[in-house]
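[Automated response] Your request has been received and processed.

Submitted sequence:
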Amino acid sequence: MKTIMKKIITLSMLFAATALFAQEEAPEKKLSISGSIDAYYQTYLTAPDNEEVSFGTAFAGQSGFALGMGNIIASYEGGKVGAVLDLVTGPRGEGATFNSDIVDGIVNQAYVYWNVSEGTTLTFGRWNTFLGYEVIAPAANFNYSCSYLFSSGPFSHMGLKADFTLSEDWSLMLAITNPWDTNDVSGTGEYALGAQLGFYGQYLNLYYDSGEHDGLGFEIDYTGGFDLSDSFFLGINAAYNDNDGSGFYGAALYPQLATSDSFSIGLRGEYFALHSDAPNAVEPSVFATTLTGSYTVENLIIKPEIRLDSWSDSMPYIDSDGMASDNLAAFTLAAIVTF
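Generated structure:
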């Protein structure tokens, strides 16, 4: 009887250990919700506040009180696979997606991924661009308004990409996608190629499509930055684009100083120019200076901002008297809540 009881106890312990081991080895599944909501007030300092006036860059192009965007991101993470669904609404969301989705809502990102190995991940679907220093969601940018470089490139890609971790410092991404900002289908039978080489927080980006059907053509882009001290960071973006003999090029610096745990101040100084191979073509350029403060209270970010753009060989604005002008200044106050 004692022998039988010992066997029963031993088997029970083995079953319990096996169940515990299986429970520990089973991949933990996680579903998380995040997002942001932002709104702003904008008034022009050198022009009347009306719909005919804007800087011409992406988003934040309305005077008076205005809505930016609201987005909800649902993220699923399994052991090796996962998925992200990012839904946006509001003018910023419509501008970022070209309002191209025939659904009750606007899909900013929707992709699945597979961690094939410790250093390799495949992503399939629509995902925000790897080009440029800035992003669509305002909470992730220091400046509230957007640069010309960011506004001129693609916002998102629809396709397949592979991310490789080559070492602790080196990374590589390769992608094949629909052409520039064709977020749903490729109706022309054409595709685009993308690549990103990363080294210790510095990224060299390449993009190519045929340039036809409003494509982007070829673009090379550098994005990076350096912590010059514990409180001072310098971000850098530079790009050159060629689209069948025309395109753009430019560079932007983003010095940012943290004066306390809750307040930082930063400047974006950007030079941006349009170019053309056509004889005697006018090639206008702009120098844009944006000074932004960032004050954080819990998950609320308040951003007062002053921006001045000045063009050469172009007069895209009007002044206070309604006359054509080559410069425009504005004050903006934005509020962003993240969750």
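Summary generated for your ticket: The helical segments are 2-25, 91-97, 148-152. Confidence is low (pLDDT under 50) at residues 1-24.
If you did not submit this request, please reply to this message.
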